[in-house]
Each structure stands twice: as C-alpha cells, then as structure tokens.
Amino acid sequence: MLLGQWLGFLALVLSAYILWQIRQVLLIVFAAILLATALNKLARKLQHKLKLKRPAGVLVAIGIFIAVLVGFFILIVPPFISQFQELTTTKFPQILQSATQWRTNLPSYIPAPLVPYLPDLNDLDRQVQPLVKSVAGQSLSIFSSSLAVILNLLFLVVLTIMLLAQPMAYRQAFVVLFPSFYRQRIDGILSECEVSLGKWFGGALLSTIVVGGLSTVGLLILGIPLALAQGIVAGLFNLIPNVGPTISVVLPMSIALLDEPWKAVAIFIVYFLIQQFESNLLTPYIMAQQVSLLPALTLISQVFFTTFFGFLGLLLAIPLTVVAKIWINAVLIEDILDRWKAPQSRIKRASDRDKLADSYPDPQLETEIVIRSGDGE
Fold it and tell me: Residue 104: its pLDDT value, please?
C-alpha cells in the first residue's frame, strides 16, 4: 500500500481505539439523544395543544422531566436502601439461625436407617457464616460508586437539556461531517430514526405504565412492603425484554420469602400473569406504535450490548438496535448492496453463454459449451 493508504488505515485504527475507550460516554450521549427526542416530541404536542411558543413548550417539557426524575428518586432510592440494609443485617442472620435449627433437628424427622446416608452438614455453619458476615459488612458496597452515578446522571440531564434547546443546530453539525452529495440522504435517515425512536418510546411508556400499575395493585393486595416502589421498578424493568421481568420479581419474592413463604409463590404467579397479559395482549395491541424487531434479533442485541457495554448497554439495547437497523438498511442495503451491479464484461459473457446453452438441450453438450466459451476463469 501507498504511504497515504497506510496513514489512513492507522487513523482508522486509532479512531476505533479512541471510540472503544470512551464507549460509556458515547452510551450516555445516546441516552441523552433518546431523552431529548422524547422530550422534543412532548414539547411539540404541548405547543400544539396549549398554543405555546417553542421556548415555553420546551420549558414545560423539561419541568415535567425533572419532576418525574426527582419523584422517582424520592419514591425509590431511600426505601430500597433501608430495605436492603434490613435484609442484609437482620433477615439473613435470622434465616441462617432457622436453617441451623432445621439442620440440627433434621435426623429426628428421618427414619433411622437413612440417617447414615445423610450428607455431612457439620461444616455448613463454618462455610455460610463468613459469607453472611461479609454480605452484612458490605451491604452498601454496591453504592460505593454512587458519586460517579450521580455525576453521570447530572451529565445526562444537562446534555439532554442542551440538545433539546437547539436540536437542529446539533443535527446540522452532524450532517456536515458527511460529503456534500450525501448530506440530504443522512438528514432523511436521521428523520427516520427520530420517528422510529418516538414510536418506540411511546409504546414502551404505555407498556411501562400498565405493567407498573398492575404490579403495584397485585403487591398491595398481597400486603407486600414497598408496593408502589416495587411496582415502579417492575414497570421500568419491563423496558428490558426477556431479562427485565425476571430481574424485577427477585426483590419482592425475597422480601415475601422472609415474611411468609406462601406470599413468594403468590408474587411469582401475579408477575407471571402480568407478563402473559403484557406479552400476549398488550404488546400486540401497541405494536403498531413500536418498531417491530424479530425476537431472536432482540435477544442477540441484548447479549451483544451487555457483553461490550455492561448494564447500560442492556438498558439501551432495544433503541440501539432500532437505530442500527435503520442505518444498516438505509446505508448498507439500499445505498450499497441494492445498487451493486456486476461489471458489463462479465454480464456480456454470461449472456453469450446462455445463448449457446439454449442451442444445445443436452446437459453434457451444454457443459462442454460452457467450458469452451472461456467462462471457467
């Protein structure tokens, strides 16, 4: 390769390395773009219905967003921190004590001939107690990076507001990065992404509200603590297909298991019925408002983005897949592959071969003609 080609290749490798190093920042930027798109759609609706000007509509949309964010933290974070501390410092030791008593009385419930065949459980306390002490002593270890989380969240909110204030300016700055002959096409792709993300967000919001409301009602009927907070969490985790519903049921079942074991089974049944309703009735109803993705593609995208980007990648897997699908379909398939034509000389040789083959219906003679025509290159 020439020197210029080597320099271009090295620049491409260096750019890929830099992008990989800042991948978490890029995900936060994408999340800000997603929120700005949703808030921009809300601002437009407020402008239309309330006859507001653009600045007033944006301010009202931002106020709603900040109020929802603050309310979420007030309802969710303090109760869950308190409940988590109680689970690790009080409930788990009680479970260990009950398990120890049950192990001690176990031989009395088993016929004498089977007692010698019981596994040796004498080391159970020595193996489990250090683990429990470690969990109790580090009950707040998952919050050790709370400062970084708060800073990232603050960055997300500020960036969302900045993008929402002047969306067209940032959009034009992105379009200018492409060659002049392709800028109109890029602007059309961005418009398609905006429409698709808006549809996905609307359908996902409706699904979140319904699942969160049903979960809250079910937990209230069963008398589970923090019913509202856990219902909100169930609704939010419903944004993560396949994995989210499973994660959301763990905490309420754990709390119920420490209170009354039958409630854990009841919670599992309630969440299962809610998910069946959401999957078989609600989702098909709102699918017209969402972007249709193949189930296997959804699962593969979740595994891919979680592997490379962690929990934030899992949370944003669906909108990332929606955007990637639009760009691949528009740029790779429509603009490159669909317009990829074979060289005219090869097409001419193929046409001559077909004419010669039509003159010889015998397959053996047809094969000989193909070889003689010089197409076996």
Answer: 66
In this prediction, residue 84 carries a pLDDT of: 64
Residue with tokens 């398939």: 333
Q: Write the pLDDT tens digit of every residue in 35-56.
A: 999 899 889 888 888 888 888 8
Question: Which stretch, 9-18, 122-131, 282-291, has highest mean pLDDT?
Answer: 9-18
> Could you tell me the residue ranges of all domains in the chain?
11-103+149-165
CA nearest to 119, candidates 110, 132, 128? 110
